[in-house]
Amino acid sequence: MRSLPVPDPGVPDHRSATRFLLWHAARIWPTLAAGMALAVVNYVGQALMPAVLGKAIDAGLVGRDGDALLRWALVLLAVGVGQAVAGIIRHRFAVYNWLAGAYRTVQLTVEKANQLGATLPKRLATGEVVSIGTADINHIGGALDILSRGTGSIFAIGTIMAIMLSTSIPLGLVVLIGVPALMAIVGLLIRPLHRRQETYRDQQATLTTRASDIVSGLRVLRGVGGESVFAARYRAESQTLRRDGIRVARVEALMESAQVLLPGIFLVLVTWLGARFALRGEITVGQLVSFYGYTVFLVGPLRTLTEMIDRIVRGHVSARRVVALLRLEREVDEPTDPVTLPDRPGELVDIESGVTVRPGRLTALAAAVPADAVAITDRLGRYVDSEVTLCGVPLRGLPLATVRRRIMVADNNARLFSGPLRVELDPHDTADEATIEAALAVASATDIVEALPGGLAAGRVAERGREFSGGQQQRLRLARALVADPEALILIEPTSAVDAHTEARIAQRLGPARRGRTTLVCTTSPLVLDRADHVVFIEDGKAVAEGTHRELLRTEPRYAATVTRAEEE
């Protein structure tokens, strides 16, 4: 019994889609080769059965030789059993190859997504990622699966051509010329089919992205009355997608009918010619029966070859999309020569803006333009490379694991994951009950847990925490960040979705809860700013004033205007 997925998917060759598919094939070459060999036995065995049947008719029935009839009947039985057994084992290998290709692609894409982190949503739309994880992995697996049957079909067709040419050159030439002609005719439909399929898939990915955006912003849309507008736009785009799907289905139906009709016409032609040759005595009755069996059997291999072309093209298109994902690079890389960071708290300094976050203090960052604060936190958390230092050591010289362990950036784009509530709040299972309850109290989220069936011990979170309001989700995210208790915690607008009373409680409790730890809060809330040990005012991306909240209100008119505007909002 083989286990999937494999522990180590390996390092993919993503120089091109073709190389990626070949890399996949090389990873499973034993089962791929075994599947091909068994497919050859299976298909060639089926191809030989009409010839054995013809021999039995000529030698046993026409020649009235009972021994010969029994002998050829036993040969027919042996060939039938052999090809059936080979077919069963071949199918097992083919299914394994399909699953191995699909699972390995999933492992590679998930691993790459984890490596990219915050870079992924900036470079690739949500719908594109979803399509890779659903449709494309199936097409890549299908391309590997079809190789065994396609190989068997090629050998079977070659065997039939050789037998027919040795028996009747005219009939053999008909098959020799007719088979490629049929393949060419059906092949003409494959290119337009895949062109329409690719268009359909792109639009499907776009629509999936739009649906995700609508769902994530549903509360905001309802608040501004835009729900009906976006719903109408989604409805119109979904109808366009439906029409494109129908266009794809038309070409698929045409190709399917051609795969049945054309071999059927070919079957009638070969049978008619064979009957005329038999009447003239050029071939025997047994050979006529064999020729009929060959043409009937050829329908299967011909369809398989067409299917192989179709699946390989689809797999190549899907591999091209996966390769595009695998080629994405993180905005920040691991240092080639990492340095050692002192094992003590230290100042976190952003040289570009002039912001200094002192250890053991609650610092607030108030920006006239919110995007400036986000840019600074991206640099402080090393989500982009910059000249930020911690304890005087440049972050760009530290391993990313070290940076992530000592500096946590918690923003409102973070998600709640489905599963047990306790695991959601303490993913690494390092905190005790008292620590978690204390974090919930600081985040003013105790009431959320108490209202949840099962409470902290047995409560569960639905997908993306959809059972919670925006404010409840924000408080649970804050509690999760507090439970992690990093050396330096950066909070981006942690109270933007809660009411004033809840905000006041959080502001009052946050400082004492983080005493002795480095904390930076990006906010323009007067309630939070008034509780901060130190406030830095940002304008045009630079620190232009520092002090306490009350000092800045008296001495810095631009700060007062920014804070007053936020309070009015």
UniProtKB/TrEMBL annotation:
Recorded topology in the membrane: Multi-pass membrane protein
Which residues are listed as membrane-spanning? 28-49, 69-89, 146-165, 171-190, 260-279, 285-305
Matches recorded under Pfam families: ABC_membrane, ABC_tran
Q: Does the keyword Iron apply?
A: no
Could you confirm whether the keyword ATP-binding appears in this record?
yes
What PANTHER family would the database entry show? ATP-BINDING CASSETTE SUB-FAMILY B MEMBER 10, MITOCHONDRIAL, ATP-DEPENDENT PERMEASE MDL1, MITOCHONDRIAL
According to UniProt, the name of this protein is ABC transporter ATP-binding protein
Ranked from the top, the taxonomy reads: Bacteria, Bacillati, Actinomycetota, Actinomycetes, Micromonosporales
